[in-house]
Amino acid sequence: MKGAVVQVDQNRFLADLHMLRSFGASGVGKGVVRPAYSNADSAARVWLAERFFEAGLSVETDAMGNLFGLADGPSLLLGSHSDSQPEGGWLDGALGVIAALEVARASREAGGPAISVVSFQDEEGRFGVTTGSAIWSGHMGLAEADLLFDHHGVSLAEARRNVPVTGDVDPAQFTGFIEMHIEQGPVLDTAGEQIGVVSDIVGIRDMKITFEGQQNHAGTTPMHLRRDAFQAVSSFNFELNERLRNVVTPATVWTIGHMRLHPNASSIVPGKAVFSMQWRDGDAGRLGRMEGIIRVLAQEIADARGMVVSFGPLLGLEPVGMDAKLRKALENSATSIAPGRWRVMPSGALHDATNVSRLMPVAMLFVPSIGGISHAFEEDTDEVDLIAGLRVLAGAVEALES
Ligand code: GLV
Ligand code: MN
Ligand code: MN
Question: Exposed e or buried b for every residue in 27-43, given b needs 16+ CB within 10 A?
């Protein structure tokens, strides 16, 4: 029905958000440990599927494990992801899924617009970069992704073996996608604002780099004869910061977040180091220039030390802008719910919306992260801000239909 008032139930929304947190609750603060395909993730998805069903939506799970609750006919898709980082917060992704569920339920109760809901799988990149939505959108093929490994050597093909697949979900039924998320940075919290309407999402590149030298005795091998893989990574990291200086802007970021030394023992000069190299920027050209610097430097370091370097598959997503019409609906809704306390801002974090933008118009809204902390157990947001975000989302959905 056009013009229906979508009256969200904030208590039901908060109760469901806390319930979702109970799957993989870490015991430290409000943190969760719910990586893609873990027992906690699978149990959370069973619970979510029941909630989608109760809300009158038909439940579908595709081969990757992306979970949909579908309204009949054409609908607007809302959602995010419910997997977490190995040590994650309770809101990253979960907020967007539960807000979507609440708006879908409330809209149905009010006879409002048809809303479908999604929880994408492996947004947090246990295997790739936003893997579930990358596959659903056609950015990456499932057969190709099946060959990706996590940091423990488990392949995606193996991890997704027990997914309760029901079938594919055709993107053509959706008129657009809106993802609500926590900001995961300090901007809104520092400014004392409640809502961010996203203008665009940065691009990313991510690959594994391996240095191989010679494993040897840590007591007897003279320093000048060592081919120590950790020393190579250490020089690489130091030199990279120097070489990137003239290429990057204050918004560019790069991270070595994971490293595995072999054999990882106090009395052995490490013969092998495998590490993750990730970089992000809003300019695809700059991402490419950084890649060149990274590859050349790693090769130089290996050559100078008589070592071998190899590079894993380069994964990535391009920077994307948000759809003007959906964004305007969010901006208007933010003006009425949080007057003077919202802004337009870019996203430095990656989101499923990037992949979905290949298929349909997309937009995003943020609520503040206390202290700008995320991807950590301490991640949190004030309840009043969570509720303001939910109301902005519901207001935008209502306006898009009228
Ligand atoms: C998503 O979690 C990201 O790493 O930006
Ligand atoms: Mn997220
Ligand atoms: Mn995340």
Answer: eeebbbbbbbbbebbbe
pLDDT at 295: 98
Q: Are 82 and 65 in contact (CB under 8 A)?
A: no
- For the cut 60, the answer to whether the pLDDT of residue 317 exceeds it is yes
The two three-digit tokens of residue 386, written as one number: 């969570």
- Does ligand 1 have an atom closer than 6 angstroms to the CB of 67? no
What is the band of 1 on the pLDDT scale with cuts at 50, 70, 90?
low
Secondary element (H or E) of residue 316: strand 315-317
Q: What is the amino acid identity at position 76?
A: L
pLDDT per residue as tens digits for the range 112-165:
999 999 999 999 999 999 999 999 999 999 999 999 999 999 999 999 999 999
User: What whole-number distance in Å separates Cα of residue 136 and Cα of residue 170?
Assistant: 9
The 8-class DSSP code of residue 57 comes to P
Strand partners, 88: 32
Q: Within 248-348, where are the H helices?
A: 284-304, 324-337
User: Could you tell me if the CB of 350 is within 6 A of ligand 1?
Assistant: yes
Where does the pLDDT of residue 2 fall: very low under 50, low under 70, confident under 90, or very high at 90 and above?
low
* Residues, CB-to-ion distance under 5 Å, ligand 3: 92
Question: What spacing in Å lies between the alpha carbon of 184 and ligand 1's midpoint?
Answer: 9
Of all helices (H) and strands (E), which one includes residue 240? helix 229-244
Q: Which atom of ligand 1 is nearest to the CA of 280?
A: 5
Q: Is 124 in the pocket of ligand 1 (CB under 6 A)?
A: yes
Spatial neighbors of 153 by CB under 8 A, at least 6 apart, are none
3-state secondary structure of 265: coil
Name the residue with the closest Cα to ligand 1, atom 2.
124
User: Token pair 């995003």 is at which residue?
Assistant: 364
Report the distance separating Cα 375 and Cα 289, nearest Å: 28
